[in-house]
Amino acid sequence: MFCVKINKKGATMSIRLGYACINSTLSSHKPRVTTNRTMIKRTFLAKGLPYVSELIEKNTEDLLKILQWNEEHGITLFRMSSDITPWASKYRFEELPGYEKILSNFQKAGNFALAHGHRLSFHPGAFCCLASPREKVVQNAIIDLNVHGKIMDMLNQPRDHNAKINIHVGGAYGEPTVSIERFCKNFDRLSEATKTRLTLENDDKKNMYSVKMLYEGAYKVLGIPIVFDYHHHKFCAGGMSEHEALEMAASTWGNIIPNCHYSESQCIEKNIKCSPTAHSDYVYNKINDYGLNLDVCLEAKAKELAVLKYREMFENHEIALRNVV
DNA sequence: ATAGGTCAAGCGAGG
DNA sequence: CCTCGCTTGACCTAT
């Protein structure tokens, strides 16, 4: 079924664009506006929770500022940075001296998002391996994921995949079928706040997880929706075309708008030798939605500027054309 | 103020 | 064996 969204100007569009973690415009302001204040281990050990609390208070204040900037620029899809709460797997938020303020900041930001129809998400790090054969690694992954679930709760976000916490399976260990079974077993150990929001993304390495493998190994077992990454699919297609893989991923979302990632290769953009999986600053091609209604997070180094540029290249142009016709 | 080296965690790919 | 890439450049010290 084809759904059409109407934006404020009354134009039709079937892709909502967003970006990840950093607003480059605001982070170059003085004083800078960022949610990415963090610290190295030595500083964490030396300064402890009071300093952590101080940074999180600033980060959470700035989250609201970024969302306000997004609202002013018509961007309603945003992936939050896990750096917003540095070292959060090592303490409980309630232990922080500024906890009340932090909770309040989170609530303000989350309520702003709800009030203006913004969709927020997380993408916890590559170190988060729920499929690991090593129990200690799994325990760390569970703690880290549950921190993200807790933050989504503090943000008053729904306990469903609108407020997604997206990860990769984390490792195939040469036996992907066995490893994704282990992933499913460990999924049960997560908190409700996390389980209800968790999604899985296809990998960019051919010995890891394609959309089809995620579908068979995790969606059919647990109902976990699949985030389709256009760029990754090029390196791990699992025998499917882009269209087929996107359709399959989109079918896992029920009544929630499917979330996708889109990026392009830096070596092509810059005409240099580099890893083909490294991301470009901007994106240059029109994203094919194959007639689906999608939320697409641009993974481009220029961040929000890449969203604005994409719109200039494609959406404004289309609107202009439509007005002519 | 800025440059340069360094930085929690896991895994897989490539040299 | 080492480095890179990944959710992301930011932190910290010396100058």
- What are the low-pLDDT stretches, counting only 5+ consecutive residues below 50? 1-12
Q: How much β-strand is present in the residues?
A: 5-15%
Shape descriptor reads globular
Largest sheet strand order: 5-4-3-10-9-8-7-6
Number of strands: 10
Spell out the helices and strands N to C.
EEEHHEHEHEHHEHEHHEHEH
Mean pLDDT: 89
Largest sheet: 8 strands, parallel
How are the SSEs placed, and which strands pair?
Elements (H helix, E strand, L loop, with lengths): L4 E2 L5 E2 L1 E6 L3 H4 L13 H32 L4 E4 L18 H17 L3 E4 L12 H20 L10 E3 L8 H12 L4 H4 L2 E4 L9 H12 L3 E4 H4 L8 H9 L8 E4 L3 H5 L23 E5 L5 H21 L1
Parallel strand pairs: 3-4, 3-10, 4-5, 6-7, 7-8, 8-9, 9-10
Antiparallel strand pairs: 1-2
This protein binds a DNA duplex (15 and 15 nucleotides) through helix 2 and helix 4.
Can you offer a commentary on this structure?
43% of the residues lie in helices and 12% in strands. It is of the alpha/beta class and 325 residues long. The chain has 3 domains: 17-73 and 83-113, no CATH class; 122-262, TIM Barrel (Alpha-Beta Barrel); 264-325, no CATH class. The strands form 2 sheets. An 8-stranded parallel β-sheet has the order 5-4-3-10-9-8-7-6. A two-stranded antiparallel ribbon has the order 1-2. It is globular. It starts with a strand and ends with a helix. Mean pLDDT is 89; it is low at 1-12. The protein binds a DNA duplex (15 and 15 nucleotides) through helix 2 and helix 4.
